[in-house]
Fold each of these.
Amino acid sequence: GLAAQNSGEKIEIYLFSGAEIIEVEEGQVPRRCLTDGYRYNPREKNPQSRWQPIADLDAPVVAAPVSALGPSHILVFSGTDCTLDDQFWTLKDDNPGIPTAIRSYHTITNTWINIGDMPGGKGVVTSKALPWQDEVVIISGEDRPAHRTPKVWQVNLESNISAFGLINYGIVGIYFLLLILMGFYLSGREKTTHDFFLAGNRIPWWAAGLSIFGTQLSALTFMALPAKVYSTDWTYYLGAIGIVLITPLVIYYFLPFFRRLNITTAYEYLELRFNLVIRLIGSFNFVLLQIGRMAIVLYLPAVALSLVTGIDMYLSILTMGVLSTLYTVLGGIEAVIWTDVIQVAVLLGGALLSLAIVLWQLDADTADLVGSAWDQRKLHIVNWSSDYTTTAVWVVLVGNMVTSLVSYTTDQSVIQRYLTTSSEKQAAKALWTNALITPISGLIFYGLGTSLFLFYQSHPQLLKPDLQTDAILPLFVVQQLPIGISGLVIAALFAAAMSTLDSGMNSISATVTTDFRRWSNDAYGERINLKLAKWITVAAGAIATVSAILLATFSIQSVWDMIFILSGLVTGGLGGIFILGIFTRKANGPGVLVGLICSALVMYLVQQFTQIHFFLYTAIGLIVCVVVGYTASLILPSSNDQLQGLTIYSKLDKLEE
């Protein structure tokens, strides 16, 4: 059999069974049927490593129809096992036919299982198995030696959906009710836009730190991170270390400007340092990226939950979108942060609980589990290579450090948390809280991913061939967790999505109200500004929710891919602008604009025409913007010479303890 399928990391070619031609006595079939298998990676640079063995079959399946199914399964329909080869010439038309067993191979866990039999008690060989919509079609073929059948088989392998249950729905409902009550409780404090966007600077440092963590950890991460480790290894874990390494830079070189200039959005600094155009470019890019991100964060978890639990996809999208909008409008950033605290607790608690139950289900010594994972390179973490197209250690570490630096210094949804604490010192503590939680939580999620691999390797019959790999954690939750506990973990999944949604809505409102409206007309009263901020929050939530519904209905993912691509072209450049503003005196508005444009062009060329690993995209964009922007600033004139308090050479005096 021969098929192409994803190995969990890349598309590879899988070859198994077949027959070896041998010399035999007259009257015998000249072949030896095989049960071994191999996978072939054409991109492997070392020719001797391109072929790797896979698990053997329990019997030969010579000339079997084969089809890839879903993200990581290969189906093998019947196939000759060669047990009657020595009777080939004597049986003739009395040959009982081809074996009927249907086998499934899972590329990630490297396991074979029997999943059923061909209909009608007849197998078939020398035919093609063709995927068609959600089914597989087999046209004609030999149902016994030297006899072709006109039959066409249509195989439906649709997975059964587990019922979620009233108790689980009740737990999720109680969780949602708690979030709404939180919004109502805090609604009385929102008297001004300063309260609505910055919580009156009354947020404790630990709550702000947990909120930063919750904002960065979306539902996609909650599902995708364990799924990534389940299908590959621990190579990406070094990215969590990168956040720890960049935190001192953020605290000592960027935080003082955000705190001491009395600003609401990060992009206000860009106008003070450069000009209004640069400020609006930064603001517009943030709003565009957040709308796209919010839609995806609503859509993808809803799809996974509908496939695994049967919860209606549209109901999930509407519930998350409407409830997040409601408590964010009622309580502003204060409600966002305190609900984030609850959501982080539920999220990490759900992940820890899932990890504990997976390990309990495996029922083996920890040393044996670690040894099994180690032997299969599932704990591999460092790739010592100079290759910039792979996840080499320097690519993962440098790429994630720069990406995190840009995120923590240009993303309004993160920076806004710095401004909600009572002092710069408290904001620094919030950043360190996030930095310390990130690698610890990484151990939980990475350990969960490895444990899921070991569990489903031991129980491959529980896998659903048509289910996306990113849904492996929700699948385990509904299959193995007790009623009530599974509801709590699904609530954690909702929590991860909603912590991203509420942050995005409030930050978009702050950006639009502060950057796009007040500069044009600041004559309106505070009461009207607050009302406008709330309506913008509603609009942001509505746009994200409707966009997610459109994604679910019309399959327009390519539109959102384009949004992310276009926005991603300038993300690294935006980080470069902040670096030019803070660390240089010569950089000016026209120069950094040229740098940003050149950075976007270079990023487009890198994405389209090179194989550079995507981890390095932000770093490349940042470097190009800094080099070109500084050079252009030396050539282009600028009238902005008021730099007092706007660079590291003239920081404002420390105003707070």
Amino acid sequence: MALVLLRSPGEMGADIALGSAQRFGVPLGFGGPHAAFFATRDEYKRAVPGRIIGVSVDARGKRALRMALQTREQHIRREKANSNICTSQVLLANIAGMYAVYHGPQGLRSIAGRIHRLAALLAEGLRQAGIELSSRHFFDTVRLRLAGRAAAVVTAAADAGYNLRLVSADAVAIAINEKTTRADVAALIRLIAGVDADIEGLDEQLRRADPFLPASLLRQDAILTHPVFNTHHTEHQMLRYLKKLQNRDLALDHSMISLGSCTMKLNASSEMIPITWPEFSDIHPFAPLDQAQGYLQMIGDLEAWLKAITGFDAICLQPNSGAQGEYAGLVSIARYHASRGDGRRNVCLIPKSAHGTNPATAQMCGMRVVVVDCDESGNIDVADLAAKAAQHAASLACLMITYPSTHGVFEEAIRDICAIVHQHGGQVYMDGANLNAQVGLTSPALIGADVSHMNLHKTFCIPHGGGGPGMGPIGLKAHLAPFMANHCVQPVAGPHRGQGAVAAAPWGSASILPISWMYIAMMGGSGLTRATEVAILNANYIGARLQPHYPVLYTGRNGRVAHECILDIRPLKAASGVSEIDIAKRLMDYGFHAPTVSFPVAGTMMVEPTESEAKGELDRFIAAMISIRNEIHQIEIGHWPADDNPLKRAPHTQADIVDEQWQRPYSRQQAAFPLPWVAENKFWPSVNRVDDVYGDRHLFCSCGPVDESDESAEFNAVNHTGVKT
């Protein structure tokens, strides 16, 4: 918000700028979720971790958006992974972006100007009353020198309804926001200085000359000049714009999203209601705990329930994503070894099938990754594990393992695997990405894990939000509990006092915890167990129905999968030239989001239906996949050319269907309405297939030029520039 008024970091010579978009309409929420961002100069863009959206063109030459740059560590060699930045706060970034769209540059200047003017009124009123200011220049935060009175002033302010920051015995800091009023400023001056300030007179004085923001620091260039930030300034305009964007998203409100390893389950409306309550959304991350007793009760309930579900002795709710949970867990392991004089233990065993964040996290913790082989059935090669554990026994820190495995099967040797690691002095970290197949049937601690993270945005129903917010709390056994993350600003009671933090707030993104609390409270133990059983049943139903058409790559000894199954597309590609990407694009024409593509095995599709989907929806997905297989057969027998068929041309847009120059070997009906029920709830893709090669060669990651006939530039402005503002 300050940069609305101040010169940009880039203009002042910075190469990298970090910040938070929380001030752009995102609630404080007792710590989050918020969207942080960092921006960098163009020459450093290919070193950026995370994901950046860029502009390309589609098959019809229309401007289209794509993932232009991404750090997804599963795409590179495990031992070279170095960034575990995975979950992005996309939902919060969009909130911040829409805040900028709605208010526009003039509205934002008005808001920022109001914030600073009120802070300046407070500072000048206190200065004239004899209170010493700690700094001459500021935007919204005034720091005072109070010579031993700081604690008394903070207490008196709290009694009057104001939370001030106690910096030291002699200093207090006061932050102003756009909801602060002149009456608040007058009350604070009276409380601190004991005088009644002339607010009108102070305001007139500051209008003539503001000594707290020198002209040399003020921004002179225009901001947010793209039309999207200068158009939608009434509620009707804004709602219609949001609806237009929503119509371009193939989301769970349209059909099943079977992304493997993502657990895209129902986010029930009843679970979402509490996060709108101001009692949860409007509390500061470091508010006095006697003002957060409701939060603390909910957090206590959730910790107790997660202990019961996972079998662990302690829960840390601080990590904001699964990847951050991995980091917190491995830090706890490293601290534990160091406390025993075993600081030399730095080898982390990781199966070849692991999610890419596992080796990246180990690298970030200063560990050396040793990859463990998998057998032809997709299980960990126990003999290879035993050999490498023995080889590195003196330096073995831990094993990182996912259960059920990333290959979608329950590894029968899992307890033996944990025992081997423990035998050689290591700890077992269990990646909780697939916890949805364990809840109520088994638990990480029962299996033998020492620490594990839980994806609350998967197993426990927090929405994915297009990539965030997420929560990745960790559970730990008693011997690791003293080494889990704590917080220096707001320490949490327990054996881990004095430990450092892994996130900005003590309980992470606390304001979305009510979603998981509601889910567990409403489901109860028997409901959670039933959900796990149905999730496994649904995956096996899909696998069994599709096995005659698409080989299921990995199964257990009894021919079953866990909660997801991997379909092997490689034989079809060899016979027809149709790839997993072609099938993924074609599924859009049937109204379905694609499963996970080429992870964890290249040339495959991983399907996870979750327990939320009824049999009718599963049958529609199965029918779509079988219909696509029949289309592939038409290519195999030469009925359609290998380069001109519904799969290679997918997805089909309305522009395709109304094109008077339709000259394809299949009908418009086959293209857009391949099965009778598709027309009842047709999803129209907004672009044709995006040209990835063009996008790579013409990397463009900012607002596109304005073209009224091409709204994708407008869409890009919201999702990219809005985040960077």
Amino acid sequence: MGVCRNLSFLLLFLSLLQFLHHSSSHPLCIDSSAPLPQKVPLSFCSYNGTSCCNSTDDSQIKNQFKAMNISDSSCASLLKSILCARCDQFSAELFRINSRPQQVPVLCNSTVLPNSTQTSQAANNYCSKLWTTCQNVSMVNSPFSASVQGQAGGGVMSNSTKLTDIWKSQSDFCNAFGRASDENSVCFAGEPVNLNSTGTSIPPSGLCLEKIGNGSYLNMVAHPDGSNRAFFSNQPGMIWLATIPKQGSGGVMQLDEANPFLDLTDEVTFDTAFGMMGIAVHPNFLTNGRFFASFNCDKTKWPACGGRCACNSDVNCDASQLPPDSGSFPCQYQSVVAEFTVNGTASQPSLAKTAQPSEVRRIFTMGLPFTAHHAGQILFGPTDGYLYFMMGDGGNSGDPYNFSQNKKSLLGKIMRLDVDNIPSAAEISQLSLWGNYSIPKDNPYTEDKELQPEIWALGFRNPWRCSFDSVRPSYFMCADVGQDTYEEVDLVMKNGNYGWHVYEGPNLFNPPKSPGGNTSAKSMNPIFPVMGYNHSAVNKNEGSASITGGYFYRAETDPCTYGMYLYADLYAGALWAGIESPENSGNFTSNLIPFTCAHDSPISCTFVPGSTLPALGYIYSFGEDNSKDVYILASSGVYRVVPPSRCKYTCSKENTTAEVTTGPAPSPPSGATKLTNPYVNLVSLLVSLWLLCLL
């Protein structure tokens, strides 16, 4: 039993370890919101243009600086720049040391590692300059005494006014506040952070696919035990647990259609626009067995379906005045998130092959005003453990009731919910919640009092497939389906407004009708897409298009695609690789890339007549397994990205002499930080040994 107990502790440690690697960040403010263009120039801090400060923040920093009462002008100039660093586009990264928030930014210590993403400004030993200039200068309420008291051999005198009162030497001071600039971090050198523009990646020569399954699915979620299993769900409401073959094995996906993991077809309303839209596994599934599904239902056919209508007096909407849509009345159809469990179906959740068919609890229920644009994907945040719920604008052309910009409406939003702390029925009623969840305390409503507390970001038309980068979890990417002209990919941040229906992509949009009113473009700070495409680029005759969001490619299988964001058009004729340059800048270029199916695909592919393009049908979604291999979920089957050489695509980084199943895997770009297959294999081995202890 002692061995089993040690295995349990080791598994817990390894599970936590995967989140401890340092991840670099795109431009992001201290409060996790997006830097925005300033309409009024800052008067104190020299951070005009796009900044993390507004005029109120600028005034507060000015008052803080005056209160420090620094008599030495040279030191005062340095301290002003340090206080104003809160306005830097990279302030979220600058004001953290080992993931802990700090009072002052991390100071450059003149060390620039070879893989640094920062310019030569990082070679400035700003920490040494600050110490030399300010070590004996008195300052009131020094931020250096409050930040890291007791570290680096210093004292804990919170009332000290000189650096030398707290720190014994420059070495101690800079050990606490200094840092080198490398691939994963930036440092402050007395001026706004700049990134290198060198080392731009080259788009892959093509993406090679193999077909491993014939079924049509909307969702794929890797099993949290680290194995080669994954959950697949289809739109009618069935969920299966499948086994995925190893890369290069020639095998096909093993899935028993007659024995689903969970069958919700009696509850789910299924047609072109409705169905099961999302599934998610709780981060602690291996211990608590919690499983979640997002779907649509018809309250005229299922009494348990009913919920409040999204068109209500709180959002200045009268459901009785809405026109019928496709023969249905307003809020006949509902958007639901429900919780299920595998507890009781097996001795341990990891051994479960089915879930209990009855709901444990209803997380969310909301009536939809029209029959389209309700999105429905659900994801757990990889670092915060909260449930993200994507919701469209509710339908009808042009969002006529302006739900997406209405901060009291949950339509056209991304919500962020806490499903671990369930309030009482009385609290749910008192807080006017839409189900069994609580509100994370750092949701943006605490700063923007007009926002409904569930909202994380707003201004979406129909977000269709979102994902977190497995290496850099602050990169939360969502594709948003356009209306007339433009399909977009957004880098989603706290309290970000992504423009709809004032903008469609980067362009102003004129709603054909707007009985619900409009929002002035001058009154908002929209965040424009980081990638996207015009409808005419994929269908010159009709201009018809609909984006399907994907993943940052982090597998070892195709090293020439590593780190690029893959996304596609629904109609399966176009696929893009988004390349960020400079790295960690949040600036992307989209590259239309060729793709085809390997001649030795385990399941033979069919092709578009007269073309090398595989006949995928519709690309509904993408998936990612525990090895970070990426999948395309199409109407014609399940396709996996495989080594480019199998389709005769050239990739200089690919090791074509090694067997995929037995030889060394090709390496990703130098310095890449990621979980590797050996890590996953180790976890899988330990899980297997641990399960033997339970028998």
Amino acid sequence: MELELLQGPPINKIIFYGVIIGYFTVVLGLGALFSTQTRTTKDFFFSGQRFSGWLIAFSCVATVIGSYSFVKYSAVGFRYGLSSTTTYLNDWFLAPLFLLGWMPILYYSRVTSIPEYFKKRFDERTRSMAIIFIMFYMVGYIGINLYTLGVAADAVAPLDKVVLQYFPGASSVDAEGVMTATKISRLIWATLVAIVGAIYVTAGGQSAVIISDLIQALFMLLAGIAIFFLGIHLLGANNPEHLGGFSAFWNGLPEGHRLPFSGFTQPEKFPMVGIFWQDFFGASMFLYFGNQGMIMRFLAGKNVNEGRRATYAVILLLMPLSALAVSAVGWIGRAMLTYDLIPKDFDPEHSFVLITARIVTNPLLFGFILAALTAALMSTIDTLLNASSAIAVNDIWKPFICPGRKDKHYLNMARIFSSLFAFTGLLLVPLYMSFNSIYVAHATFTAAVSPPLIATVIFGILWKRFSARAAFLTLFLGGILMGLSVKWPDLIKPLAALHGMEPGTGYNYMRALYGMLLCSTIAVIASVIWPNRNLADIEGLWIGSLDAAKRRFKGGVPNDREPGQKTRLRLVGTEQDIPDTAEALEKIIVSVGPAAAEKMKARTGDLVYICDKRWWLGGLHSVHATLAVDAVEEGVALLAPTAIKYGALRMGEDVTIEKTI
């Protein structure tokens, strides 16, 4: 079978550059738009905690599907079939602890980062150790994403010929056969995306990230699903048995490819037991309990219940759709191989690019696919920049370097740090170019970093006797032991043998489980020797004291036994305004009449959420306030003009008000 069978229409460079320019224009426009609403550090890092669950959920998809996902999982799907979805379907195991423990603890304690939680729950020393773990991971991950998107963009629109015109000496090749001009081309693309990402994240903060990620998620899901159905149509029209599309697809998959799981210990590069433990502890657990960017996304919801709704949607609906979107090209490609529609010696690593080019023949649709790939390039980097800036400001700059400054100063520093981290990640790109397999290196690094951090978080949530000294030792000794397992992989042999895995059969996948067992052992032994005896100091910071967390969050007795109903009132400005400062915007008062308060089952001092009546805005135009039940005209809500402007609300029009707590 000739390779020409794989060739679709040549990539139209006008379409490609048009898509790139159009997309960059949109995200830069979002940054400019939301810069006017980003007035405080709470806005920059958490969007003022104003968004609805559905918007948060879709934006999370873009964070999970990175620039490498389509390429990686298309290859995995080609080799192993439907079991490629395992990575995206592990999350439901951990949902109860995240929904009922970790997320409400973070939300009600008003922490801005994981290290800040460690400071409150344990001590400053443990916080410092957490900063090292998380920042080392995130800055490295920024560089990996920039490198990956440089490779992806260069594959579609290489600039090596342009480079050679100006630098003829760049024609030399390295040991892997990669030309220097190609490396420069990749670096140019990485630089371009780093600049664009830094500009719109710096300007618009979390709001720009969430809205752009919403658009990106829709592009990626629709593109992946569209390619799948186009592939089904192609198989239906090109199989010798004249089967329908879905029948041709199913019959074209080998029997092992139709199973939801791979073999327990085989194949050696994709054993089910190894993939489960690595993805559960090294990916899923870290995503929800150790990934600063993902946690900030859920905390941007208008209340805890909206964060929970977003989590339900992500785990039960959007993760399965994401698994289909990123893996389907590989499944289609494997069925095409059965019907001799691609060469027998086809390289699965090229599945996404070559199979997509074969399936998608319409130039406009191909432009849409390019837009989805462009979205994938940007979707993870923006979250990482915002999250890294949050830790730099709230855990380093604010407590240690410049304490006691006004919020405006920290907002400016947040923007500066966003740009600095983009530049730092870019500096790492040439380093990553020297690795033979940066993806394997990153997977190993993640599996080594995540267990100490996750174990500390889990024990901190669940066990009140887990002490500051025990937490520090779990991070410190756990990190050392995980590093030793990378240096001497044979340390994992006993655990791998317990699962029936022999050396050379992928037992390195067991590193995450190995780390969790060791770190948990350290945590238990250290807590038995040095138990936490100051239980009053951790009220509201572990799962058994959520009522205390709610009291601190509200500043009074929680009023959440009766949920009440939303009420729609006409918004009227008060005669007396409030200062346009971060401190004043944290203490906004809204006055309503007794009838409206009764409908909400709310009383004076309760926290409420005021939102534009247009639900489809997802909370974009909204503001939080403290309720005052007063002699106000029924059907009216009184709010300071500055607060109305801050929430992008419209004076004189109806708004929806609901009780938060």
